[in-house]
Amino acid sequence: xxxxxxxxxxxxxxxxxxxxxxxxxxxxxxxxxxxxxxxxxxxxxxxxxxxxxxxxxxxxxxxxxxxxxxxxxxxxxxxxxxxxxxxxxxxxxxxxxxxxxxxxxxxxxxxxxxxxxxxxxxxxxxxxxxxxxxxxxxxxxxxxxxxxxxxxxxxxxxxxxxxxxxxxxxxxxxxxxxxxxxxxxxxxxxxxxxxxxxxxxxxxxxxxxxxxxxxxxxxxxxxxxxxxxxxxxxxxxxxxxxxxxxxxxxxxxxxx
Length: 256
Hints:
By secondary structure, the chain is mostly beta strands. Helices cover 7% and strands 31% of the residues. It has one domain (6-255): Sandwich (Jelly Rolls). It contains one helix and 17 strands. The longest helix is centred in the first third of the chain and has 17 residues, at 6-22. The chain is globular and about 50 Å long. It starts with 5 loop residues before the first helix and ends with a strand.
């Protein structure tokens, strides 16, 4: 075979690099800028408003099911007014489906948490669960108090899409709170995207996402994209890492 022109070598090299990058989760990790640390105010337990749907009041998981089988019960542990991830039982999601809403959720990383980076209390709040596995639109849950990881993967991030404006995390062992306004995406009849999803989120009363536009569902490797769906459940993640299990309480939603 004769020699190929130099431009062909350049194109082949670019394609090879692109293919390699598409298989590497580190290709979508963003480490800079690092969000400024802001100390949040005193923790408070926000009671649900009169028009809220209470998804968890500390007593049972009647509003929840297994994310793998909507007909199977959620198998996490309820005790002391909180629900705790039971490792290996899988993600849980609401039995109801939602479009636009306001959500309040409180979560706690164990005080004796071990590990570092992404292996330190990893879970996720999926604002719409769009399919099997971990598909959906995720706000990261993680111990990000003195625990450095990639900025678009720390607590308060729209995972691998939007870095939080600040780091407003409390210490492990203390209750944290998310307050989220979710605007679901809209699609045309042919399945194409009409309006992207948008999120405003507060972590411990501090704004961390300001009406950001999502690029699609959360993915660990590669670039996010949209696939047509309607109202969807809210999902909580059993991440399966070796860290101590995470607990949740006081979960309510207001349909908008």
